[in-house]
Amino acid sequence: MRIAVLTRALFGFAAAAILAGCGTVRQGQNPALLPGVRGNAIPATSVRESSVPQVAGVYNGTVVETSQGRSIKAKLKITLRQSGDKLTGIFDIILKTMQDQFPIPKGIVVSSHGETILHFTIEGSPGRNAKATARLTGKTLKGKAKVPPHKGPAVLFKYTATKA
To answer: How far apart are CA 81 and CA 98, in angstroms?
Structure first.
C-alpha cells in the first residue's frame, strides 16, 4: 500500500509539472530537480532504497564450524558495509590462538513480509567460497553458511551475532 501511495504521488507530481510546462527532462539532467523550483528541490530516493533496512555495523557473537563430524566453537565478529541493498564486509573468526578474516565481497539485503534477510558470499580459498544467509531480528543476526565439498570437505557454519 505504501508503494502505491508513493507511486500515485510521484505520478501526480510529474503530471502537474508537465501541465505547468516544466516537465521536460533533458538527457544528463536530474529528473528529481525540476526547472523553475528554487531552494526546495529534493533529490528523489527510490522506493526500493528507502525501504531497505540499514544493517551496516559490527556484530559480535559465536560461530560453530562443523566438518567431517567435528565441531569447533569460536568467537565471531562480522563487519558489514552497506550501499542501498548491497553488502560487503568481513567475517572474522577468532580462535584462542589465531584470527581468520574472510572477506564478504558481495551480498544483498532483502526485506520481505516484515523480515530482513541477508544473502552473501564469504570468500575462502579458490573454489571454496561459502554461500551464507542470515536473518536479522532486532539487533541479532542468526544464520548459516556452507562451503561446498570442492577441493576439500564440506564445511557448515552456524552463527549468531548481535550488533555492537
So the answer is: 24
